Amino acid sequence: xxxxxxxxxxxxxxxxxxxxxxxxxxxxxxxxxxxxxxxxxxxxxxxxxxxxxxxxxxxxxxxxxxxxxxxxxxxxxxxxxxxxxxxxxxxxxxxxxxxxxxxxxxxxxxxxxxxxxxxxxxxxxxxxxxxxxxxxxxxxxxxxxxxxxxxxxxxxxxxxxxxxxxxxxxxxxxxxxxxxxxxxxxxxxxxxxxxxxxxxxxxxxxxxxxxxxxxxxxxxxxxxxxxxxxxxxxxxxxxxxxxxxxxxxxxxxxxxxxxxxxxxxxxxxxxxxxxxxxxxxxxxxxxxxxxxxxxxxxxxxxxxxxxxxxxxxxxxxxx
Length: 319
Ligand code: SER
Prior knowledge:
Blueprint: E1 8-11, H1 18-29, E2 34-38, E3 52-55, H2 61-70, E4 75-78, H3 84-89, H4 91-111, E5 116-118, E6 121-122, E7 133-134, H5 145-164, E8 168-169, E9 171-173, E10 175-177, H6 190-200, E11 204-206, E12 213-218, H7 219-231, E13 243-244, E14 248-251, H8 252-260, E15 268-270, H9 275-280, E16 285-286, H10 289-295, H11 303-318
Parallel strand pairs: 1-2, 1-4, 2-3, 4-5, 5-8, 6-9, 7-16, 9-13, 10-12, 11-15
Antiparallel strand pairs: 12-14
Serine (SER) binds at residues 83-84, 122-124, 146, 173, 175, 186-188.
């Protein structure tokens, strides 16, 4: 995107990623060039509430189209989705929102010749039997409805590119850790909740075992991945909506140990529930050499830096 970029629409903008990515986009391309939408309004008085907001249920094509037309949208950053845990509680709703919403974004991309549609995928595309370090290309076999929708979206991305020439792009995000907005019902939420308990001086009851190891990423790198991929030269890309992006990988015990450097009395009590099975079906880490080679992906935060920054941010927010 350049300064001349017409306008970017961010769907699901009040969610964990959207609330920070939309602000970063408005810093980079101007407040008047970013329109945000969601089914919940931004918190009054928040920086997000300063951006142009449209109420949008992404499954409603007519309203989606009217927003694209009204604001002369050029790029859609399509974040509206149901995550893994909520998806298991209501698989049909997860399918409807994730698939119809994305198809609507892709069809609008074709109809209005948008320059790009960015739609993230997830580590949830993998399932049992996948190597511990998930390759870029290989067997997926997700076990959750969320994972099934994300694989479908990746395939739709390839299809829309081949059939209609739509420039759609996306990364397979790991669990995202951030201090601004809580994640909305995923399996990796423990890696965020644990910080809130530590900073508030409470024990944390963790819903997965201490040896549960998953790929994770801190929000500044999550935003960097989206912006770097959106801005990458098209001719360099060998994939569409399915780039692996690695950053850090740790088990809960190692995360707790790092937090205990700041809060020596902090305790985690392990009470695994149904979410353990989902976590166990995902890889420990990912091979992101395609993203590194094609568009120069390079994360900045490791576990130590992330924990330090999270604690500083949450102390300022909560205390
Ligand atoms: N954070 C997501 C989830 O746990 C994974 O993409 O559902």
